[in-house]
Design goal:
Order of helices and strands: HEEHHHHEHHH
Distance between the termini: 59 Å
Largest sheet: 3 strands, antiparallel
Oligomer: single chain
Number of strands: 3
Low-confidence stretches: none
């Protein structure tokens, strides 16, 4: 056999072929986790901020002339704010569950973002809240509202909903690779009790079969624990 037929030895620090895709997968999982956390937290914050701001304003006609009326996001629709809280809770709960539970929570996160986006888009041109306020001022049901204008805040809420939706999609796609709450969150002493259960009891010198089992395990039966 010639020397050319012998393959050269592989360097010790050369990564094996299967290790490269695994490393790429871990990097992708870490990247998706960071993006999902950022999108989820930023999206919920934008929605909660936007719903507390003025979305629409107009003028109601009264006996003395006209009276300006305005409505914030919560006046027009309370759905985006409520769903933002649900989505934020779902984002945290993703790390407390595993397998099927993680899929369900991720789906809830995505649905929360979708609901926020749809309700914010519908609320961007809604006049019902202004008409209701005008009716209270004039004392006439169904009072008209004039010179209605809208602010950009509904679209800010919509962007926040899209970010929550993106976080949910990332959780559905990559959530199975994300870490979960481990045993370090258990009650104090639980780890010690678990270790004690794993530690075999000292062999009884009055029972020869236990001495032989200890020797088979590589233990010194003459040493007491």
């Amino acid at each position: 056999m010639s020397a050319a037929a012998v393959p050269p030895p592989r360097a010790e620090n050369e990564p094996s072929a299967p290790a490269a895709p695994a490393a790429r997968g871990r990097r992708a999982a870490r990247g998706s986790l960071a993006v999902a956390l950022l999108c989820g937290a930023l999206g919920a914050a934008l929605v909660l901020l936007a719903t507390s701001r003025k979305w629409a304003e107009g003028t109601a006609s009264v006996a003395q002339g006209s009276l300006s009326q305005s409505a914030n996001g919560d006046d027009i629709t309370g759905l985006p704010g409520a769903l933002a809280v649900v989505g934020l809770a779902a984002l945290v709960a993703v790390f407390a569950v595993r397998r099927v539970g993680r899929v369900v929570v991720s789906l809830l996160l995505a649905l929360s973002g979708t609901g926020i986006a749809v309700s914010a888009a519908l609320g961007a041109t809604d006049k019902a809240a202004l008409k209701e306020k005008a009716s209270k001022v004039t004392g006439v049901a169904g009072s008209a509202i004039h010179d209605v204008s809208y602010t950009p805040w509904p679209w800010v809420a919509l962007v926040g909903g899209v970010l929550l939706l993106l976080a949910g999609v990332l959780a559905l796609a990559y959530g199975r690779h994300w870490p979960a709450m481990s045993g370090r969150y258990e009650r104090p002493g639980a780890e010690g009790r678990s270790a004690a259960r794993r530690t075999p009891a000292a062999p009884d010198p009055d029972r020869p079969e236990e001495l032989w089992k200890a020797l088979d395990r590589g233990e010194d039966p003459t040493v007491s624990r």
